Amino acid sequence: MRHEFARSRLPTERFAPTTDRRSSGGSCCLEKPACPIRLENRSPQKGAAMIALFVILYTFGIWLFYIKLKVKPNPINLAVATVIGFVAVSAIVILWQFSAPTSGQLVVSRYTIQIVPQVKGPIVSLNAKPNKPLKKGKDILFEIQKDLYEIAVRQNEATLGAAQQTVTQSEAAIKVAEATVTEAVANAAATKSELDAKNETNEKSPGAVSKIQIIQLTDRYDAAQATVAKSKATQDEAVVALEIAKQNVDLAQANLDKSKFDLSQCTVYAPADGFVTNWQVREGAMAVPLPLAPMGTFIDTSTVDIVAVFSQNVTKNIQPGDAVEFALKAYPGQVLKGKVDSIIPATGEGQFVTSGVLTTPDAIHSSGKFAVKIKLEDESLMQSIPMGTAGMCTVYTKTGSPFHVISKVTVRIKAWMYYLIPF
Asked: Dihedral, CA atoms, 80, 81, 84, 85, nearest 10 degrees?
């Protein structure tokens, strides 16, 4: 699995508040040390000269004291000389570790993608070869039988066509219903006018129109009113039917889109620039969209993460952007360059898992180390460095540059030792 790394850190604080991108949140913040170590900033050449000068002066002092002045060695002066040398060497080592810390725990990490198909079916073509370079979206990994998915596409195309025809029919039905309503309203209006005229005639000349005619006209008017109501109900039904038909078109279109997507997923392409490994499939095998049973592992070579582990006390002077030199076992004799990308102010040893079991004192421990993410300077090597490559590195902080020369020598010696020593 891919590791996620924190990328921000304030240069004047021990840790900046950070939030893991995969967790729900949380932060930690420690105060700035009261007395941070600050060493004089000199060039590496001056540092080498200073160390060489100390060795020369110390050797000269021993020669002058015991050989030139012929002072007889005794336990006291031997102890003094030893203490002076020990203190001086210890001071150099301490200042060296804080100004140019070295780590023997370095590993190259990459993204990995579990290959799981989106659709189910037998594999008819296996194109990708294990551990061979592939291009994102261009090179095919394998192909799944398409027959059933092509049939599904044709079925959904037919369903969509039928749904669209239903919409056309519903629109025509609405027009017929509107015409029927118009006709019914006109008939009702005509009947009402005739009835009103007969009633008015009877009022002026009683008996001019028989009661039977009035009753018949009244019945015709009531029937016309009922026809209007029925026509309007039919019109409302046609409108509802049209809405349902349109929804069926949308549903048929969605089913068609899904079937086309499933058909496209029968051809599986490389998800990134890289190569496939642990290739467990053969032609004729059944591909199943089950995450618990991946068909292989894809290694993404478009990016690379180089992570080294340092003791927590020496990371106080490491800042993003500091120069880094490192040697890899896969490249013996070579010293590669990079820069500090970020310091990861968290370890799994500080995480407590929620459970019904109480924490015991033995479960609380820490190795006292933090990881530092390094960005490779030579991008041309990004795709070629093998995942899992081990090595060592040194970080040149902005403090104590006179002592950087020691680490420069150390990393070069280690690079050449990788020719001889397999660890």
From this structure: -150
